[in-house]
Amino acid sequence: MTELVYPSGPAPLARACKSVKASEMLPVVDENGMVLAQAPRDHVHGGSRLLHPVVHLHVINRNADIYLQRRSASKTLLPLYWDTAVGGHVAYGEHIAEALYREAGEELGFYDFNPYPLCTYVFESDTERELVNVFAAVGDFTLHPDKDELDDGGWWTIDRIESSLGKGILTPNFEGEYRKIKNSLLALL
């Protein structure tokens, strides 16, 4: 996994940012996790394409079912699409593991797991660039989706995921990531 390396003092504000009065500041990084600057969340999502770190956690049970969350209807991007069990931004000053446990707690009330690192890659869309740190947790977990964070959640079989690919049910990011990590997930069983 790529661990973030913060400068000894506060990182400067990213180029073209007008204010630091944002409620959520994110680190701007290079592909090695070196923190170069900080920027408000709306700036990194507003077409600046500044590379910023995120965490994803795939939860898989001993039957090879994968837990997916259904994104909230209030989400700006891809509302009501099915996605990775846990996903979220790393806040400025946070490290990868801190963000992973914070997001798992916020979204699923999930704290008691041992994350297994799978990969790190750069995801690019028309409006943003993310340094995605992907983890998995394997076990027979009881998860409690937070209805303020997501619309729903449930266990999906590999066959159900495979038959849903390319049909506008799953987020494009999940589909691409699933193709990258499917064999690694199954190897953990």
Task: Provide tags for this entry.
189 residues, alpha+beta, Nucleoside Triphosphate Pyrophosphohydrolase, seven-stranded mixed β-sheet, two-stranded antiparallel sheet, 9 strands, 21% helix
Description of the structure:
The structure is a single chain. The chain is of the alpha+beta class and 189 residues long. It has a single domain, classed as Nucleoside Triphosphate Pyrophosphohydrolase (Alpha-Beta Complex), CATH 3.90.79. 21% of the residues lie in helices and 32% in strands. Strand 7 and strand 8 form a beta hairpin. The two termini are 21 Å apart. The model has no long low-confidence stretch (mean pLDDT 93).
* Residue runs with pLDDT of under 50 for 5 or more positions: none
Q: Can you identify the CATH superfamily?
A: Nucleoside Triphosphate Pyrophosphohydrolase
Would you tell me the structural class of the helices and strands?
A: alpha+beta
Whole-number total of structural domains: 1
Major sheet details: 7 strands, mixed
Specify the overall morphology: globular
Distance between the termini: 21 Å
Query: What would CATH call the architecture?
Result: Alpha-Beta Complex
Measured by DSSP, the beta-strand proportion falls in: 25-35%
Oligomer description:
single chain
Number of helices: 4
CATH class: Alpha Beta
Helicity, as a percent range: 10-25%
